[in-house]
Structures are given as C-alpha cells and as structure tokens.
Amino acid sequence: MIDSSIDSSTSTQTRKADHLRICLDEDVQCHTVTTGLECYRFVHCCLPELDRRDIDLTTSFLGQPMGAPLLISSMTGGTEQAKLINYRLAQVAQHYGLAMGVGSQRVAIENPDAIATFAVRKVAPDVLLFANLGAVQLNYSYGIEECERAIAHLQADALILHLNPLQECIQTNGDTNFRGLLDKIEKLCSRLPVPVIAKEVGNGISAPLAQKLINAGVRAIDVAGAGGTSWAKVESERAQTRKQRRLGQTFADWGLPTAECIHKIRQVAPEIPLIASGGLRNGLEVGKAIALGADLAGLAFPFLQAAAESEAALFELVDILLAELTTVLFCTGTANLSQLQNAPILEKITQSY
C-alpha cells in the first residue's frame, strides 16, 4: 500500500516544479486587465530643492526596520531549483534590507525533506521574513500546529495566509471548501506568536473583505491584485482535462486591479500595514503604489526571472529598482517615503493626449 501522505507530498512537489517552469517559460501574464497604475501620473517637480544623495528610502514594517520598501513576494520552494532561487533571493534581501516571503510551505509540512528548500534564515539573518500557507488548508486538517511548524521552519517574523479560490477552482483536484474560514482565521490570529498577513495571489482583495479580515485579527493586508501573473493561466497550462483548461482560459483576466485595491482599502483602513503587489514591474510603479497608500511594494515575476538567471542579475535588478524609486522621489520633490505617501503629487489621468 502507498502511504497517502507520501503520494500527496510527491504531487505537491510536482506542482511546485510545474509552476516554476510555466512562470518562466510560458506567457501567463494578464492581457486584458491591468494593474490600474498606468491611470496615475506624478506631478513633476522641476525644482526639487533636494540633493539626490540625501533621499531616504528606509522604512519599517510590522515594527522591523528595512533598507527600502520592497518585498520579494512569495514564490517558490520544495524543489532543488526552488532552493537555489530562494537562497539567491535571501542573499539580495539581506544585502539591501528588503523583506522576503517564501512560497507555500505545505510541501514542507507534508515532506520534511523539503524544509531545506525554504530554510533561508542562515543567509538572511536580519531580514523581515514571511512564512506562507494556504488559508484553505485550515479546512483540510491544518491547524495551529502546522502553522507554528511553518513559522519555526523559517524562523519567520510573520505568517502569510494566502487566499486563492480561483486558482483552486482551476487546479486539478483543487481544495475548494472555503466555508467557515474567516472564523478559523480569527482563532488562528489570536493564538499564533507572530502577526498574520492575508494575501491574495493575483486577483485582489476588496475593501469590504479587507475590513472583515482586519476585524478577525489579521495584522497586515497584501492586496496581490490583478494585472500581473495570472494563476488561472498557470493552472490552465498544467490542466489534465479540457474543462479545467477552458476554465483557466475563461478566467485568465479575472480580478480587481492592484491600484483599485490599494486605494479602496486605504479608505476604509487608514492604519493597517498594507502591501501592494500584483503586476508591479519597476520602481516607478513601486512609487505609485506607495503614493496611493501602500507601505511596501511586492514584486515576484521580475525577481523570479533574475534569480533564475544568476545572482549578479538579481543584484542588478534591485539596484535598478532602487534607482528608479529614488528618481521618483527626487523628481517629485519628496525626500522620504512618508512625504511620498502624504504629499498631493499623484493625480489620476482623466484625459488622453
């Protein structure tokens, strides 16, 4: 008889390998829905009254200081390629003082041999590090013990609970029982030793849902809006049936644009630590997200591409992102991130030229 836990672990590892391959090799970006950030522009300041060298990108999140407001968003783990990518990402996070999340640790809960593919704390002792599990697993036998194990494996500062109903609908044999999850999240938030972050995976979190999550005890929100990688497309690429493939294609551009999520959540929850992710590709978009009200900006696909190429490519990417963000501050006459968030320097484009 085959041990069902071993079979499940093998299936999860295969899925992780498929996800990496598809994200790197196939076109799984949104095409008809955008982040919405292109609808905003900064008011240019031709006399900044600043020395560019004095611009300060430092910040803090959940009480921990950071060198810049960038999060290496949750991506991967569970395979040897994922291990290499995670270690490279951790090295660059440590060097620049960035935050980092790992991919879903379910594979490591099911198979202890996979723990090493996530164990980046030894190369990133000082970074703000986020563990990660799917919230829906709370309806599939997971509880506080599994969450504490994920946190301990990583020596994490917070736990991301990712919310991915669309992906689970399209994934072959996906976990689609989301009933009663909010109550379970609330109980978890009250018992865990670290803050809980609620995160979508590319379809966005609405303001009313964000408010419910905050009321349940979630300490930060990662909007992960539409406009970047489409996990409906990713799952369509690995679908085993015509129906699942069709579902992925139909819902490829489903979701709430990232900019809309930031704006509306900030209106109802002005104090909640807020992460903007979902389709951000450069430092200008990072600047727009922060000006809209985000505290951190999370990027995944650009970091994945660079990390898969080389350590040097990854360091070059971060250097470019920071230069782009610094240029945003300089050319808007803002000396730090607090000024960028609070000055009236971002306007919505209402006409075409």
TrEMBL record:
Cofactor(s) annotated in UniProt: FMN; Mg(2+); NADPH
One of the record's GO cellular component terms: cytoplasm
Biological-process GO terms, alphabetical: isoprenoid biosynthetic process
InterPro entries assigned to the protein according to its UniProt record, in alphabetical order: Aldolase_TIM, FMN-dep_DH, IPdP_isomerase
Binding site for substrate: R15, K16, S104, Q105, R106, Q167
SMART domains: IMPDH (SM01240)
Residues that, per the record, bind Mg(2+): E168
Compartment list: Cytoplasm
Keyword Ubl conjugation belongs to the record: no
EC id: 5.3.3.2
Keywords: Cytoplasm, Flavoprotein, FMN, Isomerase, Isoprene biosynthesis, Magnesium, Metal-binding, NADP
Catalytic activity: isopentenyl diphosphate = dimethylallyl diphosphate
Pfam family, one: FMN_dh
Main location: cytoplasm
Listed GO MF terms: FMN binding; isopentenyl-diphosphate delta-isomerase activity; magnesium ion binding; NADPH binding; oxidoreductase activity
UniProt: FMN binding residues: S73, S74, M75, T76, S104, N132, K199, T229, G279, L280, R281, A300, F301
Residue span, FMN-dependent dehydrogenase domain: 182-343
The keyword Transmembrane is assigned to this record: no
Assembly with partners or alone: Homooctamer. Dimer of tetramers.
PANTHER family, per the entry: ISOPENTENYL-DIPHOSPHATE DELTA-ISOMERASE
Family: Belongs to the IPP isomerase type 2 family.
Function: Involved in the biosynthesis of isoprenoids. Catalyzes the 1,3-allylic rearrangement of the homoallylic substrate isopentenyl (IPP) to its allylic isomer, dimethylallyl diphosphate (DMAPP).
Protein name: Isopentenyl-diphosphate delta-isomerase
Species of the source: Desertifilum tharense IPPAS B-1220
